[in-house]
Design goal:
This protein is of the alpha+beta class. The chain has two domains: 251 residues, Ribonuclease H-like superfamily/Ribonuclease H (Nucleotidyltransferase, domain 5, 2-Layer Sandwich), CATH 3.30.420; 119 residues, Alpha Horseshoe (Serine Threonine Protein Phosphatase 5, Tetratricopeptide repeat), CATH 1.25.40. Helices cover 50% and strands 13% of the residues. The protein is built from 16 helices and nine strands. The strands form two sheets. A seven-stranded mixed sheet has the order 1-2-7-6-5-8-9, sandwiched between helices. β1 and β2 form a beta hairpin. α4 packs antiparallel against α5. The longest helix has 27 residues.
Length: 413
């Protein structure tokens, strides 16, 4: 098949939806240098090529949003690891943690996607230093990755936001493409604290979505001005390759703020374990502490929060049910009943709260009339069928038998 025939066939298959269009390719263009108007930019020679490096040094008292960057050094790394399911994060010294954010030529991934900007932040002595490795065109990629690899060699942990699913796979693919398999394996196996998961665990029930910008506005008091949206960065870079450097400074600034916000969000997550600012956050910290074996600490968070929480129609039931189970295991029945009462009051049409309340009333309080009333409430609002409705009816028959035999006891807490 000739090249023209193959091209024509590919185009027809793409139109029919039988072949996905590949990533954008780059026609050769004269190299456009990054303007010296971008502060901190230098060209770095590496091997047989070069790339652009921008270094931004921030003193520890530099305020990003509402708090100095240095405050992140004061929070417990164990608590941050607890929220992100990486308890071994506490073993990593601050200067061995690498804060990672990348910009790529496509947000969807796939073969041929370039990582054209790698932002790496690190605490060094009395400052937080961000180094931005910029690829002016594909010829810069090998030298740029060689420099990034050296930074990875000096790190024992990565800190990112959605980096497990986005930044690391794409960057590892580029290392493999350049026959740097050892670096790719190291990148994939480094301890990785993904703050997206920690933020969702602690604050997700209070936020409309899980975007970094939402955390910035609502939790960090960071308000970007004239920022280039992340989705616009790929097109801005392609524009740069075609000769338009007007938005390169904005790409770099966008990436820089992303890296600084990683530090801010890490501090905010760690601080939540010491001074939670909302009952739902206190419930979340208590649940995480309980599930990791810290029962005393869990009770300190869960019991007061269960008594103070006020729910609405958007109650986060998965978190609340985990909190109820933890309270029951801690023998904090009164707090569990208080929380369940709030749940069924706020969302009476959700059977999960009624069922859990009935379980506590029947098996812990031995208050069978109250348990029967809760089961009836669940039956009155359920739209489920099959096993769920059968289980409720079975529970109801058992309670009726106990009441009929005079075995019911009324107990209060």
């Amino acid at each position: 098949m000739t090249a023209n025939a193959a091209t024509g066939l590919s185009a027809r298959l793409q139109r029919l939806g039988l072949l996905r269009a590949g990533p954008r390719t780059l026609a050769p263009q004269p190299r456009v240098e990054v303007s010296r108007d971008v502060p901190g930019v230098v060209e770095v020679e590496e091997g047989q090529g070069s790339f652009v490096l921008r270094t931004c040094r921030h003193p520890l008292d530099y305020v990003h949003g509402a708090r100095p960057l240095g405050d992140a050094l004061a929070v417990s790394a164990r608590d941050v690891g607890l929220a992100t399911r990486r308890l071994d994060y506490a073993e990593v010294p601050p200067d061995r943690r690498l804060y990672l954010d990348t910009e790529t030529t496509s947000l969807s991934g796939g073969a041929g996607v370039y990582v054209f900007l790698v932002g790496l932040g690190r605490f060094e002595d009395d400052a937080f230093v961000v180094r931005q490795y910029f690829m002016r065109d594909p010829g810069d990629e090998g030298p740029m990755l060689a420099a990034v690899a050296r930074q990875l060699d000096e790190a024992d942990a990565l800190v990112s936001f959605c980096g497990r699913s986005f930044d690391v796979p794409r960057l590892a693919d580029r290392f493999v493409f350049h026959d740097r398999d050892v670096t790719a394996r190291r990148l994939r196996t480094l301890r990785h604290v993904d703050l997206y998961h920690g933020g969702r665990a602690l604050f997700g029930s209070r936020l409309p979505d899980g975007r970094l910008r939402t955390y910035e506005r609502r939790m960090l008091d960071v308000h970007r001005v004239d920022d280039l949206a992340g989705a616009e960065c790929p097109e801005a870079w392609f524009g740069y390759v075609r000769g338009d450097e007007n938005r390169i400074a904005k790409i770099m600034e966008h990436n820089l703020i992303d890296v600084l916000s990683l530090v801010g969000l890490e501090e905010r997550i760690g601080r939540a374990f010491v001074a939670p600012d909302h009952p739902l956050t206190a419930l979340a910290t208590g649940v995480l502490a309980f599930e990791s074996g810290g029962k005393t600490r869990a009770a300190c968070h869960l019991v007061p929060a269960a008594r103070r929480v006020a729910l609405d129609g958007a109650a986060p039931f998965p978190l609340l049910l985990r909190a109820v189970r933890a309270l029951r295991r801690l023998d904090e029945t009164a707090a569990a009943v208080t929380l369940l009462g709030e749940m069924v009051t706020a969302v009476p049409h959700d059977t999960r709260g009624w069922v859990q309340l009935a379980i506590v009333q029947e098996h812990t309080l031995r208050d069978h009339p109250a348990a029967l009333a809760s089961v009836d409430a669940a039956l009155g609002v359920t739209s489920a069928g099959g096993n769920a409705i059968a289980a409720l009816r079975h529970r109801r028959r058992r309670l009726e038998r106990r009441l009929a035999s005079g075995s019911a006891g009324l107990h209060t807490v």
